[in-house]
Amino acid sequence: MATTYDYEEAPATYDEGRHQDLGYDPNFVPDSVRSFVVHLYRHIREKNVYEIHQMYEISFQTLSDRLFKDTPWPSVDAVSHYVDNDQVFCLLYREMWFRHLYARLSPTLKQRIDSWDNYCSLFQVVLHRVVNMQLPNQWLWDMVDEFVYQFQSFCQYRAKMKNKTEQEIALLRQYDQAWNVYGVLNYLQAFVEKSNIIQILEQEKEGLEQFTATDGYDYSGGSNVLKVLGYFSMVGLLRVHCLLGDYQTGLKCLLPIDISQQGVYTSVIGSHIATIYHYGFANLMLRRYVEAIREFNKMLLYIYKTKQYHQKSPQYEQILKKNEQMYALLAICLSLCPQVKLVDETVNSQLREKYGEKMARMQRYDDEAFVIYDELFSYACPKFITPSAPSFEEPLVNYNQDAYRLQLKLFLYEVKQQQLLSGVRTFLKVYSTISLWKLANYMEVDEPTLRTILLTYKHKTHAVDSDGKIISNADVDFYIDDDMIHVVESMPVKRYGDYFLRQIVKLEGVINDMDRIKLE
Fold first, then answer.
1. Residue 16 scores a pLDDT above 70
2. Domain assignment present for 308
3. Rounded to the nearest 10 degrees, what angle do helices 402-430 and 367-380 cross at?
4. Are 292 and 345 within one domain?
5. Confidence bin at 1 (pLDDT 50/70/90)
6. pLDDT digit string (tens) for 42-88?
7. Is residue 479 part of a domain?
8. Which residues lie below 8 Å from residue 1, measured CB to CB, with a gap of 6+?
9. Which domain holds residue 299?
10. Domains held by the chain: number
11. Residue 520 carries which DSSP code?
12. What is the pLDDT of residues 94-146, one digit of tens each?
């Protein structure tokens, strides 16, 4: 019987070293990789979720760092005979193979197309056959996340037509269905429908199902794969629709998940952040600023409290990047809708540190303010895509920035309309009642123009929520009775609890420091 090594601690053989010196050989399988594949296959067959998670999350990263820093993993053909040529395992291995390739190297057009084919084969198996296995939520989330990311990456790549070679253009013409937007949306929607996840979540509310309580895992010997992929596909659909600029449809796709509660989406940090980031961004673009502020605040507070536990995670850099982007989006929301009372003191102090000066300038609504709005939006927005196929007519042009420019233009147009309202808000904050003619006089406009401005203020500080109800974003509201404006200011609820808790923690720290001091 061949000697097997532990997949993390296998000694680097002479051959492994030679393999790295002489370049990449797709058919060369180091002993540690063979051992990794054999063990992973066995754990998947035995439905040992804990071991699969350890190997997927830790061993795969360790081997990638050690042996495949700037080369792909061995090809699926080289490892398939170690796993009885199992079709499903080979598809899963290729899914990891392509993900590693995208993360460490730059994929060719042919590899992008091959990755699409692999996803199609894998998803067809999950949708149309009985898949008797349990996989960790982290892996299932990564599948959906990577599927959407590769779609976004392909659209950006395809839109840069200027420097494409004749061979690349021929391939794009030949494989025009690869990463087609309808194909991507259809797979995600098929997972939602085939898994019955919407009905499962409804029945869970009535106590007839257990999904969230078990984190989506099936402890009665069944499989969690289809159900959890269906669940995460709702987040995937939100993300795709945000990339397309269709925020209303994106939020509709997420409706079955109650984001005011803990759920399976919070069991994986990447899924938790992606859900709230895209949910908050969609609400921002639909002028539902209060909802966006609430959710960004909760998420930023959660990251602030837990990020130290993710320092060794492969997702750590992504967590920090999304954290910074959400602070930028929160700065935009609070500048357009100054509802600081909705923000926790910890988040507020971090926000002031990062963007305090810029937020003060954004309130002025002059040319400099618009430059800052442009800068923060460009930094924090998703990478919008144009999903349509390119024109192959000469001259070839790049159109990868078109979707972003359109969304930026719409956003800045909204900001410009807010400029008119900042003056009204300033006066309304000073008075409890003021006559129309007096306010018109102060603002140096006639009464009919003032009425138009006040109607605009009402319109811009109200939005329609997902249930079709009109909600207010206004920190200062008013009504008009007999040509008198009556101001209604929402009073912030004073919260003393947070302040006392912080002081208690500080005091405990001081006491601990004093205890360490040895008196002579």
1. no
2. yes
3. 130
4. yes
5. very low
6. 999 999 999 999 999 999 999 999 999 999 999 999 999 999 999 99
7. yes
8. none
9. 287-388
10. 2
11. -
12. 999 999 999 999 999 999 999 999 999 999 999 998 888 999 999 999 999 99
Pair 328, 380: CB distance under 8 Å: yes
Whether residue 384 is found in the same domain as residue 444: no
Domain co-membership, 303 together with 373: yes
Write 467-472 long-range contacts (CB < 8 A, 24+): 471/288, 471/290, 471/291, 472/290
The answer to pTM > 0.90 is: no
Q: Which of 111, 39, 106, 97 is nearest to 64 (CA)?
A: 97
Contacts of 160 (CB under 8 A, 6+ apart): 398, 400
Report the alpha-carbon distance of residue 480 to residue 318 in Å, rounded. 49
Judge contact between 476 and 461, C-beta under 8 A. Answer: no
Per-residue pLDDT tens digits for 307-332: 888 887 778 889 999 999 999 999 99
In this structure, are residues 490 and 475 in contact, taking their beta carbons and an 8 Å threshold? yes
In a domain, 214, yes or no: no
Q: Which pLDDT belongs to residue 493?
A: 56
> What is the DSSP track for 287-305?
T-HHHHHHHHHHHHHHHHH
What's the burial of 380, exposed, middle or buried (CB within 10 Å: 0-12/13-18/19+)?
buried
In a domain? residue 371: yes
The Cα–Cα gap between 385 and 403 comes to 6
Q: Check residue 337 and give its pLDDT.
A: 87
Distance, CA of 105 to CA of 159 (rounded, Å): 20
Distances (CA, A) of 329 to 82, 221, 367, 440, 462: 49, 44, 20, 34, 19
Q: Does 209 score more than 90 pLDDT?
A: no
Helix H or strand E encompassing 484: strand 484-489
CATH number of the CATH domain containing 459 = 1.10.10
Q: Where are the alpha helices (DSSP H) in 129-267?
A: 137-158, 166-174, 181-194, 197-205, 225-244, 247-254
pLDDT at 4 (0 to 100): 36
Burial 76-90 (b: 16+ CB within 10 A, else e): bebbbebbeeeebbb
Residues 369 and 420 placed together within one structural domain of the fold? no
- Give CA–CA dist 465/292, Å, rounded: 12
| Mean per-residue pLDDT over the chain, rounded | 87
